[in-house]
Please model this.
Amino acid sequence: MDGAKIKRIREMKGKTQEEVAEKLNLTAQAYGRMERGETSINTERLEKIAEALEVSVEDIYRFDDRKFMISGSNNNGEANENAFNFNLNIYESDKAIDILKETIINQQEEIKYLHKQLEKLTDLLLKK
Model:
């Protein structure tokens, strides 16, 4: 299990290591070692972490912040199968807003890169 995923979800939920550790009856240091990947996380522990973070174990496994969305639908109201839906009250966490801004910036950079690649491909096709 990737502890970085757990850390990112915890941050998005606006929880501290201390808060999660307390729910797990661990010290913050012991919990921090799990997030850093220094301690392995067995299935039972993962279930307790998911409960403490108010997500499912499946949510943790599937979590990919590059596909993070606040809502579970697109502009047409249809479910977006390619995006991970993660319920989060952004008003509870300034950190979540910062993470979303960072994600948007990264996606904008990726879009610029893809546009350049598309232009190159278009030029190659038009030359033939």
In short: Confidence is low (pLDDT under 50) at residues 69-85. The two ends are 48 Å apart (CA to CA).
